[in-house]
Amino acid sequence: MGIRVAVAGASGYAGGELLRLIVGHPEFDLVTATAHSQAGAPVAAVHPQLTGLDLVFGATDPAVLAEADLVFLALPHGQSATLAAALPETVKVVDLGADHRLRDADAWTRYYGGAHAGAWTYGLPELPGQRAAIAESSRVAATGCYAVATILALAPLIAAGAVSAEDVVVVAASGTSGAGRAAKVHLLGSEVMGDLSAYKVGAHQHVPEIKQATGATSLSFTPVLAPMPRGILATVTARPTGTGPDPRTVLTEAYADEPFVRVLPEGTWPHTSATLGGNSCHVQVTSDVDSGRVIVSSAIDNLGKGAAGQAVQCANLMLGLPETAGLPAYGTTP
């Protein structure tokens, strides 16, 4: 028998992607998948891509989850902390929600509301020092989807002094799966298809997470709902310091040995479709000929590197497995 793995909140989009990755993982044994409204339903009835998986959703019972070696929490924001607190320390936990990402309690209250549950190890292995920290942790907070696309584009540049930490501007478009699976009128196909719309402008909850991970001190973030099921394309602009190293050299060196981050050849720009189904992030950088600002474009699958894939990557490190185990590095275009 392999490593016993459970997923709480497995009926959602991120939960379904987690199940797909887990059943294809060489070391994982999926023993429990729980859901609230779908408890008692066959997994394949909710996730038809998993037809053939003989498993039924159970109720979210901490005692049942505690029988696993590792638990993924794919629950709505604000629901993970209570469940995690009921699990013994001997069970490793990766939380895909936001409950344990932020170190600043005031930032949590401002952007999410309610009591701050405390910060766990932040689950982005590509950040300096985080790979080792994740490997030593039993509790890891996976990244937000917009956050990882932005952080991977920006963090090395600020750290190297190539761009200023002030006056960072981000515009990022995401597929509708990023909003979850709950039925919402504005996410109906007839509402989304043929349309682009900004939302949560000036107050998106991933802003403090991005600032925490990159060192940015001033960040303007505009998220855009795009007429596609999955994927994120982020455009990040920042002012060059004028005294720092070349931005392309910084990114190329930062990700030279990373298994999932690709700095594209000059003149080639990221496409969301090229990352779909994979745990990859594609990055390109240039300088604006008019303003002189540094422009970085990054693409990810919001359910892959932005959620389930990133969570499995962290779990591999926590369990002492090869970081790439069970994770595709390439997308599925077309």
What are the SSEs and their pairings?
Layout: E1 3-8, H1 13-23, E2 28-34, H2 43-46, H3 62-65, E3 70-73, H4 80-85, E4 92-95, H5 105-111, E5 121-123, H6 130-135, E6 139-142, H7 145-159, E7 168-174, H8 189-192, E8 197-198, H9 207-214, E9 219-225, E10 232-238, H10 247-254, E11 261-263, E12 281-287, E13 294-300, H11 304-318
Parallel strand pairs: 1-2, 1-3, 3-4, 4-6, 5-6, 7-9, 11-12
Antiparallel strand pairs: 7-10, 8-9, 10-13, 12-13
Indicate the CATH architecture of the largest domain: 2-Layer Sandwich
Relative strand content: 15-25%
Task: Count the DSSP helices.
Answer: 11
Overall number of structural domains: 2
Question: CATH-wise, what's the superfamily of the largest domain?
Answer: Dihydrodipicolinate Reductase, domain 2
Low-pLDDT windows of residues: none
Nearest-integer average pLDDT: 95
Active site: 145
Pathway: Amino-acid biosynthesis; L-arginine biosynthesis; N(2)-acetyl-L-ornithine from L-glutamate: step 3/4
Protein name: N-acetyl-gamma-glutamyl-phosphate reductase
Keywords: Amino-acid biosynthesis, Arginine biosynthesis, Cytoplasm, NADP, Oxidoreductase
